[in-house]
Design brief:
seven-stranded antiparallel β-sheet; 20 helices; 22 strands
């Protein structure tokens, strides 16, 4: 083995050679205009991607297709997303305009900061919280879809439901990946009798892979909403029944009410846009921490010539880890629902601020501790990890893009199935501790508040203003890292889209560096340790990225090779 001092000296030289500010990269051509004759969909399940393509072929646009994908995923990927959860929608017009809609779930109006505290004043166990109505927020996906369709839909609302209804009625085959979730998450997936009956046999064993499944209850639900619109989910008898089932499962005097359901609104938000080299990167603002964390991670790396460092070089991963540590320190302290707390978004992505933060990154050593960079931060909390999510992207034939992340939080959400779909456990994304050091935590529970999210649906525009790529990911707190890794792989390294998604992931939100188990990064652990990363471990990370890249010849898309994801052209 190479002695530690020699390895560190070698890495220092490699890093120093890449420390000068690079010229604007040109590996992604953006002029003349790309030829987009057909649209494309990239989603975590090929059947959902096909649902979006079917809508495009019927004359639908990117918004129509994205809604169809979200609905189909409710059927074929129930462990990750669906109408029982929420999401974020980022739309980019062919003219470069960007808008976003927040469909994040909300806490009951009567919820208090003590929502997850037991009689002793201490946070209740996470599993206990998940397996109850305490974890269920008012679902936002259908309200988001309705608002997006009102603004930009082209086809009739009911037509967007047809692929999902067909899958639920006629059946879909249980995949190997889907069965694996049923095995390891049985306690949640089978918590409701309906879920147990749908996915398990009489002995309580998960059904075999390739079993043809049907979900007539979900088909009927989708048919009702297709006919009645948003009101058929949130208002009247349907809304009252939804509130009743959640309240009964909560066993709390301040649980969700029918008014909480009917009053839910998907909210248009200002997009959060910044720059990386000569590119414009746009995403979702609070309550999402995605855009600010992606932009910080990228911005702090901009002074390094990453085109000279590849994925096989430990030097890059050292820089990537250090930038993450700084970005996540700010994320943990400042990001929450902007309707309830002041989130300094502009300051967090300011170029001068990121330059100062970047100066903390050393070429040949590791920061002792990464601290938040702004004065008087509110205290951070203790949120459990999130990982039950799905992302999909659509670009239609006129160049309009939609990047949409949908989630029910953990695998199978709360485990409570209602009318054929699982309800989320999204409220566990709040801090269980309402105070720290006597001060209120920014991401504490409050009535009507939306919990902080890591979801990062993102659009990237080239130096000429034209769309370069649409990207996003699933995988809890790793989401911003996956997105930043994908952007670097495309812009700095010029990798084809399938190779970009195959690049491994290193996750370093705090002092421990986690490398993707089974990847080439495991062999780089000694090199990372030589640079001062004392805690480096390999784990199987929940990774699932989807992307479409705009090239001169048209659209190129891919699904994460770690998943069943696929990109399908119109």
């Amino acid at each position: 083995m190479v002695p530690r001092i020699s390895l560190a000296a070698f890495l220092s030289l490699a890093l120093a050679a890449c420390a000068t500010a690079p010229a604007s990269p040109t590996v992604v051509p953006t002029a003349p205009p790309a030829i987009i004759s057909k649209g494309m969909v990239s989603a975590a399940d090929p059947r959902a991607a096909q649902a979006g393509v079917d809508v495009l072929r019927q004359g639908g646009n990117a918004t129509d297709a994205a809604i169809a994908v979200m609905l189909a995923l409710t059927v074929v990927e129930p462990q990750s997303s669906g109408i029982g959860g929420g999401g974020f929608y980022v739309r980019g017009g062919a003219d470069g305009s960007v808008e976003t809609i927040d469909g994040r779930e909300t806490a009951p109006s009567a919820a208090t900061p003590r929502w997850f505290l037991g009689p002793d004043g201490k946070p209740i166990p996470f599993k206990q919280a998940v397996a109850s109505g305490l974890s269920i927020g008012v679902p936002g996906n259908l309200a988001l879809a309705a608002e997006a369709h009102r603004r930009h839909g082209k086809l009739a609302w009911a037509r967007l439901f047809e692929p999902a209804i067909r899958l639920a009625r006629q059946g879909w085959t249980l995949s190997e990946r889907g069965r694996a979730f049923l095995v390891r998450s049985k306690a949640t997936a089978a918590r409701s009798k309906a879920g147990a009956a749908l996915f398990y046999d009489a002995k309580g064993e998960p059904l075999p892979a390739e079993t043809l499944l049907t979900n007539p209850a979900l088909a009927s639900t989708l048919e009702r909403i297709a006919k009645g619109g948003r009101k058929a989910f949130y208002e009247g008898e349907a809304g009252s029944q939804l509130a009743e089932i959640i309240a009964f499962d909560t066993q709390a005097s301040n649980g969700v009410t029918a008014r909480d359901i009917s009053a839910y609104q998907a909210k248009p938000r200002d997009p959060v846009c910044g720059t990386y080299r000569a590119y414009r990167v746009c995403g979702m603002g609070p309550p999402s921490s995605g855009a600010t964390t992606v932009l910080a991670t990228l911005g702090q790396l901009e002074r390094f010539d990453l085109s000279q460092l590849r994925a096989d070089n430990p030097a890059f991963w050292h820089l990537f880890a250090e930038s993450q540590r700084l970005a996540y320190a700010d994320r943990e302290r400042f990001l929450a629902d902007g309707d309830f707390v002041t989130v300094p978004v502009a300051k967090l992505i300011d170029r001068e601020y990121l330059t100062r933060r970047s100066a903390l990154i050393s070429l040949d050593s590791t920061m002792v501790k990464a601290e938040p960079g702004l004065e008087a931060p509110p205290p951070d909390g203790a949120e459990p990890p999130e990982n039950g999510t799905s992302h999909f992207v659509v670009i239609d034939s006129v160049g309009t893009a939609v990047s949409y992340t949908s989630t029910i939080e953990g695998p199978f959400g709360s485990g409570l199935m209602h009318e054929g779909f699982y309800l989320n456990n999204e409220l566990t994304d709040f801090s269980f501790e309402p105070e720290k050091g006597g001060a209120p935590v920014a991401n504490r529970v409050q009535g009507g508040k939306r919990p902080r999210s890591s979801m990062a649906p993102t659009l990237v525009y080239g130096p000429d203003g034209r769309l370069v790529l649409a990207i996003g990911a699933a995988g809890g707190q790793t989401i911003p890292v996956q997105v930043a890794r994908g952007i670097i792989a495309v812009i700095d390294w010029g990798l084809p889209v399938s190779e970009a998604l195959a690049v491994p992931v290193l996750f370093a939100p705090e002092d421990t560096v986690i490398v993707e188990k089974g990847s080439a990064l495991e062999s780089m652990i000694p090199a990372l340790q030589a640079l001062g990363h004392a805690k480096v471990a390999a784990f199987a990370l929940p990774l699932k990225t989807n992307v479409i890249v705009v090239t001169l010849g048209g659209l190129q898309g891919a699904g994460d090779p770690r998943s069943e994801g696929a990109a399908i052209s119109e």
